[in-house]
Amino acid sequence: MIPTSIYSKKSRLKLLIIAVALFIGAATVIYTNVLVAKLSEREQQLIDLYAKGLRYMINAEIDSDNLVFIQEEIIDANRSVPVIQTDENENVIAYKNLDIPEKISEKRKKRLLQREIAKMKAQHKPIEVSYQQEFKNYIFYKDSELLTQLRYYPYVQLTVIACLSVIAYYAFSYSRKAEQNRVWVGLAKETAHQLGTPLSSLMAWYEYLKGSPKFENEPIIDELGKDVKRLEIITERFSNIGSVPVLKDEPLLQVVDNAIGYLRNRVSSKVAINIETEFPPETTAKVNIPLFEWVIENICKNAVDAMEGKGSITLRLVKSNTKGAIALDIQDTGKGIPKTKQEEVFVPGYTTKKRGWGLGLALAKRIIENYHQGRLYVKSSEVGKGTTFRVVLNR
Ligand SMILES: Nc1ncnc2c1ncn2[C@@H]1O[C@H](COP(=O)(O)OP(=O)(O)O)[C@@H](O)[C@H]1O
Ligand SMILES: [Mg+2]
To answer: Residue 162: which domain range?
Structure first.
C-alpha cells in the first residue's frame, strides 16, 4: 500500500507556494506604491519651487541680481517634470521636458500642446502665477516619465513573472506526464515480454498433455487450459498497453457480457450482476477488447470490494450527451465515495484498502482516455448507497 498522505502533502505545498507568491506580489506592489508616493511628493515640491521661481521672476525688477540665479538654479534645474506655462486663455507661452519634435508646423505643435494640457489637467490642478492683479499665468504639469514608469512597473513585472510561471508549470507537467508514459509503457512491454517465454512453453505442455492418453477424461487438464488461457489474456493486455492499441468496431453489449463472464464465476452468489441496454444488441463502439475488458474488470472488482460481499452491480449502455459517443454506466450498491475523493480515486497510489495498490482506476482512466479517446469519471456516488462510474466511448 502506498500512503495517500503524499497527495495531501503535495496539495498543501501547492497552497503554500501560492500563498508565498501572493505575499511577494502584494509586498512588491505595496513597496513600489510607497516609492511612488515619495517620488510624487518630491516632484510636487520641485514644481512648487518652480512656480515660486517663475512668480518671482515675473514680479522682479528687471535688473535684479537674483534673476540669473533663479533662472539657472530653479527654472533650468527642472529636467524631469514636464511643464507648460500658459496665459489666462491657455495660450502656450513656454514648455519644458515635453517630447515635442522641433520640425513640425506651428499648427501641429499647438494641437500637441493642447493635448498635453488636457492630460496635465487630468492629473494636477494648474498653479496660478499672477502679476500684480494685471495678468495671470498658469503652470500645467504632469508626472515625470520616471514616476509614471515606476507606477506601472510592478504590474508589468508581476505579469511577466506570472506568464513565465504558467509556461514553466506547463512545461514541467508536460515532461512529467511524458515520463509517466514511458514508465507505464516500458513496464507493460517488459512484463508482456517476460511472460511470453514461459507462456508459450506452458501452452505447448498443455497441448501435449491434452493429447496424452494418460490424462484422458481428467478434469485437471481443462482447468489447466483455462489458466493458460487467462495468462494469455493477461499477457495480451500488457502487450497492448505497451504499444499503440488497435481500436475496432465491436458489438459493445457482447464485449461487456464476455468481460463479466470471468468475474461472474468468481464473486459470491450474493452479488448480482446485471447488464442492460438502451440500444439494439448489435450496436458497436470503437474498442480494443483486451484493454476494455481490463477496464470493466477493474471497475467491477472495486464494486465487489465496496459491497463487502452482498449487493448488485448493474452495467447499463446508455445514450451519451456527447455526439457520436456511447456511455456505459457501472452502478453498484456499495459503500460509496465521498464527494471530495471522487477525483482522487483516479490518482495512482490512492487506495483505502489494506492490500490495495491504488492502480486499478488509474490504469482504467489511462486506457479509456489515452487509448480510446473517451472519458471515465464518477458519475454519481452517495456514501452508504452506492456509486456509478461512467465510461464514454466513441462509436
Ligand atoms: N465502486 C466503488 N465504491 C467505493 N469506493 C471505490 C469504488 N471504486 C473505487 N473506490 C475507491 O477508490 C480506491 C482506488 O481504487 P483502485 O484504483 O482500483 O485501487 P485499489 O482497488 O487497489 O484500492 C479504492 O481503494 C476505493 O477506496
Ligand atoms: Mg481496484
So the answer is: 148-226
d(CA 93, CA 85): 5
For 309-354, the DSSP string reads: T-EEEEEEEEE-SSTTEEEEEEEE-SS---GGGTTGGGSTT---ST
Distance 345 CA to ligand 1 centre (A): 6
> 7 pLDDT band (50/70/90 cuts)?
low
Local structure of residue 42 (DSSP, 8 states): H
Q: Is the CB of 302 under 6 A from ligand 1?
A: yes
Domain count, the chain: 3
Q: Using the predicted structure, report yes or no on whether residue 276 has a pLDDT greater than 60.
A: yes
**Is residue 8 pLDDT above 80, yes or no?**
no
234 falls within a domain: no
User: Does some domain include residue 237?
Assistant: no
What average pLDDT does the segment 128-157 reach?
90
User: What is residue 388's three-state secondary structure?
Assistant: strand
